[in-house]
Specification:
Layout lengths: L4 E2 L9 H7 L1 E2 L12 H33 L4 H12 L6 H12 L5 H8 L14 H26 L3 H9 L4 H12 L1 H12 L7 H6 L8 H4 L2 H12 L2 H29 L7
Antiparallel strand pairs: 1-2
Length: 275
């Protein structure tokens, strides 16, 4: 309801429910701000492109790491690598942003200091657009790859060892065992995570896109996404009906994306579908 109303506090009874029911219906007016400006379309474009990159790399890299870690024979080394990879997942994006700032800060950052010491031009990273798509993708992968790797590693641990023994007896090399035994057995996990991630394709990780660029307006062309655009719109207008409309639209799109992705997976491999 809130997405379709111009929410105003009811002076006679200022409770939320009373104010909600007494606010005027505005139909789809709250949705217009998502599509009216060039900034809005840029935010939508950035959201979709970044999420597509995250989804693709979020499958390839964790699966590769899980397979490599599964081949480690020394348990202590394997556990050490798992811990080091999983640790960033528990860090706040605020902490990650300050880690990154220690490398990129124009005055005290490690990289600008090395550039100055080498006698070359010093890059002002927080006003240069070009590197930021790569920085954001790297930051997301560094923080989240460990979690996905553990999931795939657990799936690999559940594969029947007799399949590898049979493949070895038939003369399969290690790469052939990975290709014909490991990866086919990971199809179900890959499909489920793919479907769930597709459902978030119109949502962005607010912490990543708000904190890592240090809320720098100069970087908005490549760092502004739907969630940060909604946040700044809320600050400027104070209209919670608009933010509710954006949230409703994101969830509706996510629902249809999940249903569509599940239908496609079901046609390809019915056993790997989520439902």
């Amino acid at each position: 309801m809130l997405a379709f109303k111009n929410y105003k506090i009811n002076p006679r009874n200022p409770t939320f429910i009373s104010s909600l029911f007494n606010s005027a219906w505005v139909k789809f007016d709250n949705f217009k701000f998502l599509f009216m400006t060039e900034d809005a379309w840029a935010a939508i474009r950035n959201t979709l492109v970044y999420n597509l990159v995250f989804i693709v790399l979020g499958v390839i890299i964790p699966v590769a790491f899980a397979i490599m870690m599964n081949e480690l024979t020394k348990k202590f080394v394997a556990k050490t690598y798992q811990t080091l990879m999983f640790f960033p997942y528990f860090l706040s994006w605020v902490v990650v942003s300050y880690f990154l700032n220690a490398f990129l800060d124009a005055q005290y950052g490690l990289i600008p200091s090395l550039q100055a010491a080498a006698g070359g031009p010093v890059t002002n990273w927080y006003t240069t657009l070009g590197p930021w798509p790569y920085i954001l993708v790297f930051s997301n992968l560094w923080k989240n790859v460990g979690y996905s790797t553990i999931l795939y590693l657990a799936a690999i641990a559940g594969i029947d060892a007799t399949q590898y023994e049979a493949a070895a007896i038939d003369g399969a090399t290690k790469w052939q065992q990975i290709r014909h035994v490991t990866i086919p057995n990971l199809r179900g996990m890959i499909a489920i995570l793919f479907i769930l991630n597709i459902g978030k394709i119109f949502n962005a990780d607010f912490g990543l896109f708000y904190n890592v660029p240090m809320q720098n307006g100069a970087l908005f062309p490549v760092t502004q996404v739907v969630d940060t655009y909604i946040y700044y719109a809320m600050l400027n207008t104070g209209n919670i009906g608009m933010t509710s409309a954006a949230g409703l639209l994101q969830n509706v799109i996510g629902l249809f994306c999940i249903l569509g992705a599940n239908r496609v997976i079901k046609r390809i491999d019915s056993e790997s579908a989520l439902f």
